[in-house]
Amino acid sequence: MDIYQIKTEVDYKKALSEIENLWGSKENTKEGDKLDILLVLVEAYEEKHYPVDPPDPVEALRFRVEQMDLSRKDLEPFIGKRGRVSEIFNHQRNLTLNMIKKLHFNLHIPLESLIGNAPVADLEAQNCQPV
Q: Sign (positive/negative) of CA torsion 36, 38, 39, 43?
């Protein structure tokens, strides 16, 4: 079994080609084991070279609201009065750490989605109270 570290784009494309050829291999066979190893190596290479940015926090929130068939009024316990909810949805105000905690724990939205690309220092600087 020729397994190699994926260091270059050429290595990456070669590994993808091998994965395509091995796709559907039975588990616990030489081919199946090689497929499993190549998948792990390719995933590691992709995470390093093709990172996926988290979604916009408001879009993540909109998606969850739609999934759960909620209204904006349903968000008031987590965000604040109607005007505050509107400001968040219109990108006029960012989610606070307190809002993020409440939305995460109550609506089960991943923290990474709610934080987005906000610098950690901005979140830590907020004077937030526990949920």
A: positive
